[in-house]
Amino acid sequence: MSAVPAAPRPASADATPGGTVSPEPEQRFALLLSPPRARGGLRVVPARVAAMCAVELQKLRHDRTELYTRAVQPALWLLIFGETFTRMRVIPTGNVPYIDYLAPGIIAQSAMFIAIFYGIMIIWERDSGVLTKLLVTPTPRAALITGKAFASGVKAVIQAVVVIAIAAVLGVALTWNPLKLLGVVVVVLLGSAFFSCLSMTIAGIVLTRDRLMGIGQAITMPLFFGSNALYPVDVMPTWLRTFSAVNPLSYQVDALRGLLIGTHAHLVTDFAVLTLAALLGIAAAASLLGRLAR
């Protein structure tokens, strides 16, 4: 007697019309139940830097008072100091009118004054608990510092636009070459990044706003008067010329002067020094960020 053939197995309810079997429910909802793998490496750093920069600029969007008040001092330098010394002709600037010679220096000065007290903001974030929350995110500390540094640079660029507008009204012979103006933006960004990182580095050492304010006020004038912002390096005494050679502000002013009014400048050296200074500043400020948060 022949064996009865086995009955065919019923098709699974999960089978698809093509004959394939859909995954089990555990597999189907695996992506919903487990978080996606975090992206790593250098690819995410630019995005996080841009995000930090955007956060900083949102503060400026809600309160523009700082931009208006900081425009007063550069205007006074150009209107009073620039116009007066142009008439006196006591500072040798060659064939360049003194107010034309002064304008790039005032742009660099106003950018430095914005950046040099940037550490006060990060101390305020420490006191309000914001900094601690930022440090527990996956964002690298260097990216946090870089975002804040370039946010300071964007503020300085806006300030530079104001100073350039005032200088143009006063008759300063500025270039309007788009490539040179782009170079001006890069120079202002790099210089401001260094000085803001210098401020955040000092904040990581002194830890309090009062001490940072005192140190900031103590170093701004030597940095400014120890540069070529107001007078050529050739008229400086030897010791001041030595200080000017290691002062990043001198390289920023030299680059701005060469780009804006066409004087002789060492642009390759200027950009190299400013880039190196910004990178060293970011590294120093990032290394002290954890100490500041404690």
How would you characterize the overall build of this protein?
- By secondary structure, this protein is mainly α.
- The protein has helices spanning 25-28, 30-33, 45-62, 65-70, 72-88, 98-115, 119-128, 130-135, 141-169, 178-206, 209-225, 238-245, 248-260, 267-293.
- It starts with 24 loop residues before the first helix and ends with a helix.
- Helices cover 70% and strands 0% of the residues.
Assess the beta-strand content as a share of residues: under 5%
Rg calc: 28 Å
What portion of residues is helical?
over 70%
Let me know the number of strands. 0
SSE string, helix = H, strand = E? HHHHHHHHHHHHHH
Quick check: average pLDDT? 81
Sheet bearing the most strands, described? none
Q: Note the gap between the termini.
A: 88 Å
The secondary structure category is mainly alpha
Task: Report the principal-axis shape.
Answer: globular
Low-confidence stretches: none
Query: In DSSP terms, counting alpha (H) and pi (I) runs of 4 or more, how many helices?
Result: 14
Describe this structure in a few short sentences.
With 294 residues, this protein is mostly helical. The protein has 14 helices and no strands.
Keywords:
single chain; 294 residues; mainly alpha; globular
